[in-house]
Amino acid sequence: MKITYYLEVLSSWCHWAEPTWGELKRRYAGRVDFEWKIALMRPEDFPVSREQCDWFYRRSGGTVMGSPYLLNSGWFEAKRAGHYEAPNLVAEAAKKFGFTGDEIRLAIAQAALREGRKVGDMAAAVQVAAKAGTRLRQSQATARQELDPKKLRQAAESKAVASRIAASTAEFHAHQINQRPAFVLTDAIGDKAVFSGLVRIEPLAATIDAMLADEAAYAAHQAHHGAAPKV
Question: What's the whole-model pTM score?
């Protein structure tokens, strides 16, 4: 079974979904494959002012999630007119250097949504990612302990990374959904469940349990009765 998580690095709702993503990975480790992919927001999906952004944050973090903290709108820049591709490009580029987990994209999101850093700027996003990657490698005592910011930026600005993000964003839209976070669950017997915009664990976990149970039942049936007749 596999879960694909479609996200935008600067999405506040993806921020609120991260505890659910982490708990799912812990709870179903070894039984489910987990992968995240970028699904870029359109420029018009972003707030048009810090005031509007703060209004959204009060609704999502305060009213809906009941969080003890509000997100920081300091990352917002009117001059960008909704173009914040840089943090997503950097997070995707980090995969080339072995960072396929959540650490780099979470570091960039933390810098923006909690600290208000303007990671819409490529240099700022690279700086955050390189520092986080180097720190992670040092904690793991790996042979190569530095994530080179120059190489990371070169990768982030490459056509290959842009093409991968364009493809994953197209995949997201092919599911006929438009809300992030989105979770697409698939299993070995051809079932698929799509959740778009939900951040709480209960519906996801219930569906995963049901799909795993169905997979197990199919396997048990085949073990007892053999493969289906061909005619």
Answer: 0.95
Chain-centre distance for alpha carbon 187: 20
- How far apart are alpha carbons 60 and 75 in whole angstroms? 17
**DSSP-derived secondary structure for the chain:** -EEEEEE-TT-HHHHHHHHHHHHHHHHTTTTSEEEEEE-PPPGGGS-SSHHHHHHHHIIIIIIIT--SS---GGG--GGGTT--HHHHHHHHHGGGGT--SSHHHHHHHHHHHTT---TTSHHHHHHHHHHHHHHHHHHHT-SS----HHHHHHHHTSHHHHHHHHHHHHHHHHTT---SSEEEEE-TTS-EEEEES---HHHHHHHHHHHHHHHHHHHHHHHHH-SPP--
| Res 142: pLDDT | 64
> So what's the pLDDT on residue 144?
66
Alpha carbons 215 and 209: distance in angstroms, whole number: 10
Please state which CATH number belongs to domain 2-225.
3.40.30.10
pLDDT digits (tens, 9 = 90+) for 59-72: 999 999 999 999 99
- pLDDT tens profile 161-183: 999 999 999 999 999 999 999 99
Residue ranges per structural domain of the chain: 2-225
Q: Which amino acid is at 157?
A: E
